[in-house]
UniProtKB/TrEMBL annotation, chain A:
One Gene Ontology CC term in the entry: plasma membrane
Upper lineage: Bacteria, Pseudomonadati, Pseudomonadota, Gammaproteobacteria, Oceanospirillales
Membrane topology according to the record: Multi-pass membrane protein
A Pfam family this chain is assigned to: BPD_transp_1
InterPro entries: ABC_transporter_permease (IPR051393), MetI-like (IPR000515), MetI-like_sf (IPR035906)
GO biological process, one term: transmembrane transport
All copies of domain ABC transmembrane type-1, residue ranges: 118-330
Name of this protein: Binding-protein-dependent transport systems inner membrane component
Family listed: Belongs to the binding-protein-dependent transport system permease family.
Alphabetical list of CDD domains matching this protein: TM_PBP2
Keywords: Cell membrane, Membrane, Transmembrane, Transmembrane helix, Transport
Source organism (scientific name): Halomonas beimenensis
Automatic annotation (TrEMBL), chain B:
SUPFAM superfamilies linked: Periplasmic binding protein-like II
Gene3D superfamilies documented for this protein: Periplasmic binding protein-like II
This protein's UniProt keywords: Signal
Tagged with keyword Signal: yes
Subcellular location: Periplasm
InterPro entries according to UniProt: Bact_solute-bd_prot1, SBP
Record's keyword annotation contains Magnesium: no
Protein name per its UniProtKB record: Various polyols ABC transporter, periplasmic substrate-binding protein
Cellular component annotations (GO), alphabetically ordered: periplasmic space
Native source organism of the sequence: Halomonas beimenensis
Length: 343, 412
């Protein structure tokens, strides 16, 4: 295709991407470098039906004047990135100096909100991604080998978790694992421990979130691999059969290499999605035991009344950096494969 | 003071004749646009305002949403603002006042003759007209307490703990207590009420410097730790809907819940007769030898946007205040603890009324309180899970607060 033609083809998509993805990211990056102007406090008296009380209020006029002078707020450089809510360099350094063992050090670092969230986010990504790929492939192969009559219904059933809205799916599971719910009560009965609660233990909450994550994203990898399986060349399979390859050997040496590009694609998508894990934490009310980077952004924007745009912006930028770091190995691999094929 | 008015209420309502009442709707042909939370009581006020003055206005719209708090600042910022009025509460009034988005109502209050006891005044300016009250208080199951050998309704948290222990010892319930302890806003609110019960101060007076790392703070956390021993194991995921559900299913004998849950619990929907007939609503308990109930008092009230034409503002104010009548209250008596003349406190209001009578303190209207509230909500969980000491938890709260207060411009 001529470069000129290509340019006109890509222009609508490109402009939409610049407008709705690139520019907002630039705006977020800029906002993350600023903090709010000083709030001018004055002592005043507030009265209501429950009596009067000395309190402070914001001097709206003085604060508005400051706002007019510096509409973006005060420039803060990268300070927001390194404060206690984020990378917490000072606190981490202090923990490093004041602790003797790695365990103690980790104990102090995991008390910091960003590292706590990062730890869960990475664990979630590291567990859910491979499990979903392996299970997805297994189910795809299984369904592919079913008699024709059963294929349709099994595909439909396997896709169901994907059709459920994440928030709703998580909420349903949350009710089921309640100590009065069907799963929670059954587990209590199996272990004969009436006080066993999935929601009260950190380890069980993590397990629950990861199981939910696998359940919810499995259909995506299943359906992609199932589509890929339809393109496995019959000749190669037959040749392998004649050479005496077992079912398992054909799977490992023919099917999996054939699906490799698809696997890179699925891995990319899963890494990106899992690193941004968010809905299950809210639906499962898991904040006490697990937080994620996306949850921190949500919390900064919601919980403080007047949103903390700087903090939320900084966490957003670091999430983007995190996604890029995670994707780099997969992207390099894909690039190499692409070049090999091109030559 | 409020209670005296409540007592005088029935007399007033008897004197007023509903059909003869014609609302003064202020300037005609204006636009009235209301943003409000989604409570039956608030709907009642807004619907009454629509009935009174919807005809005189060119436009009357109301948006009832549970997300009101999240959108109100953004909605009031443009000129003209998206809404002419926001129905808000203590905490949200501070939130919009921080950005100077609501107007003083001094002239309007005089012109429309609003009773003094409804006015929320900040620094001499009337900023809101309150109409209903809410607070946390104690819910007890009389039958279970008696069965466990507890003769009186607990009046202090120490008695609550003793009663819970007796219920557990008698083998009736392993976890007799439910409280709204969900990590985040709810957990922090439990800290707030117990901290006020211990007579604690949130900030160094006149500044934004936090002061929760104090003796009272530690005592508060110790009380919380003692309470969660008897609380349902899932307490860190419990907010109002969950605690109400546990209560209605008869799985709890003692609860600290919002007064606004009194009426839904006592009605015949959701709970068995054995639960409703034995549920007693009483004042929030005192704590640590304190004399005032450990609770935060809340009001809901009317505010008027700053960035709207004066005529719209007046029409909105007139319409909404025209709804604050004894008739409206009489029709919706059990939906809220009304502060309006004509209210007859029923059993569902007993807890809030007793808490107010006990002199509980209001939720503080301090500009930076939301930041401290958020810090408490996220940093206290580790302590309740037993992972860190009370001192460390409070130190974490203060550093977390300082970090966000610096970003918000309250501290340098």
């Amino acid at each position: 295709m001529k470069h000129r033609t290509f340019f006109w083809f890509i222009l609508p998509t490109l402009s939409a991407m610049v407008l709705f993805i690139a520019l907002p990211i630039v705006s977020v990056a800029i906002q993350s470098l600023f903090v709010e102007n000083e709030q001018v406090l004055v002592v005043s008296e507030s009265c209501g039906p429950f009596g009067c009380k000395e309190t402070t209020t914001i001097d709206a006029e003085a604060t508005a004047r400051l706002q007019e002078e510096q509409p973006l707020g005060r420039f803060n450089g990268l300070d927001t990135y390194v404060n206690r809510s984020h990378l917490a360099f000072a606190e981490v350094g202090e923990a490093w100096r004041s602790t003797d063992t790695l365990g103690e050090f980790w104990g102090q670092v995991s008390n910091l909100p960003f590292y706590r969230a990062l730890f869960f986010t990475l664990t979630y990504t590291a567990v859910v991604t491979p499990v979903v790929i392996v299970l997805g492939l297994a189910i795809a192969v299984g369904v592919n080998n079913l008699p024709k009559l059963l294929k349709g219904p099994s595909i439909f059933i396997s896709l169901l978790p994907f059709l459920v809205t994440p928030l709703v799916g998580a909420l349903i599971l949350f009710w089921m694992v309640d100590s009065d719910g069907i799963i929670g009560a059954t587990i209590q009965r199996i272990f004969d421990d009436p006080s066993l609660s999935l929601k009260a233990s950190t380890a069980l909450t993590w397990t629950m979130l990861i199981v939910y994550g696998v359940w919810h994203t499995l259909p995506f990898s299943f359906i992609t691999f199932y589509a890929g399986l339809q393109t496995v060349p019959e000749d190669t399979m037959e040749a392998a059969k004649i050479d005496g390859a077992s079912k398992w050997q054909r799977m490992i040496h023919v099917v999996v290499p054939h699906l490799a590009p698809l696997m890179s694609f699925v891995t990319l998508m899963l890494l990106m999605d899992n690193f941004r894990v968010f809905e299950p934490i809210v639906s499962f009310k898991a904040e006490a035991h697990a937080t994620s980077l996306s949850w921190i952004i949500y919390n900064d924007l919601r919980e403080s009344g007047n949103p903390l745009y700087g903090s939320a912006g900084a966490t957003s930028m670091m999430t983007i950096v995190g996604v890029v770091i995670l994707l780099t190995p997969v992207l390099i691999r894909t690039w190499r494969n692409f070049n090999r094929k091109a030559h | 003071m409020l209670l005296k008015r409540l007592a005088a209420a029935s007399v007033v309502s008897g004197l007023m004749c509903s059909s003869a009442f014609a609302a003064d709707c202020g300037p005609e042909g204006q636009s009235i646009r209301i943003l409000a939370s989604d409570f039956p009581a608030i709907r009642a006020v807004v619907d009454q305002a629509r009935a009174n003055c919807g005809g005189a206005a060119a436009e009357f719209t109301a948006n009832h949403t549970t997300e009101a708090r999240q959108v109100m600042n953004a909605a009031l910022t443009p000129n003209p603002a998206e809404y002419t009025s926001v129905i808000l509460a203590n905490a949200t009034l501070t939130q919009v006042m921080n950005d100077g988005l609501v107007r003083p109502l001094n002239d309007l209050v005089d012109k429309y003759d609003i009773p003094q006891h409804l006015l929320i005044t900040v620094d001499g300016d009337v900023m809101a007209v309150a109409f209903m009250a809410n607070s946390q208080h104690l819910f007890s199951r009389q039958d279970i307490l008696q069965q466990a050998g507890v003769d009186s309704i607990p009046a202090t948290y120490e008695e609550v703990l003793a009663a819970a222990e007796k219920i557990r010892a008698a083998g009736i319930m392993e976890y007799p207590l439910v409280m709204n302890l969900q990590t985040g806003w709810n957990l922090a609110e439990v800290f707030n009420m117990l901290y006020l019960g211990h007579d604690g101060e949130f900030f160094e007076p006149g500044t934004a410097e936090p002061a929760v790392s104090s003796e009272e703070g530690i005592a508060t956390l110790e009380t919380m730790k003692a309470l969660v021993e008897y609380a349902h194991p899932d307490h860190l995921t419990h907010a109002s809907n969950e605690t109400q559900g546990l209560w209605e299913s008869g799985q709890a004998a003692l609860a600290v819940m919002w007064g606004s849950r009194g009426s839904p619990i006592l009605d015949d929907d959701g709970a068995s007769e054995a639960v409703t007939s034995n549920t007693i609503l009483s004042a929030a308990p005192t704590v640590g030898g304190g004399s005032t109930p450990a609770a935060t008092l809340w009001w809901d009230g009317i505010s008027i946007a700053a960035n709207v034409p004066d005529a719209d503002a007046e029409a909105t104010f007139a319409a909404l205040t025209s709804a604050l009548t004894a008739e409206m209250v009489a029709e919706n008596n059990d939906d809220a603890v009304w502060m309006i003349d004509g209210f007859e406190p029923g059993p569902a209001a007993a807890g809030v009324a007793a808490t107010i009578r006990g002199g509980a303190r209001p939720y503080p209207m301090i500009p930076q309180i939301a930041l401290l509230h958020a810090a408490l909500g996220s940093e206290l969980t580790d302590f309740l899970k037993g992972n860190e000491s009370a001192e460390k938890a409070l130190a974490d709260v203060e550093t977390a607060y300082r970090t966000s207060a610096k970003e918000a411009g309250f501290l340098n």
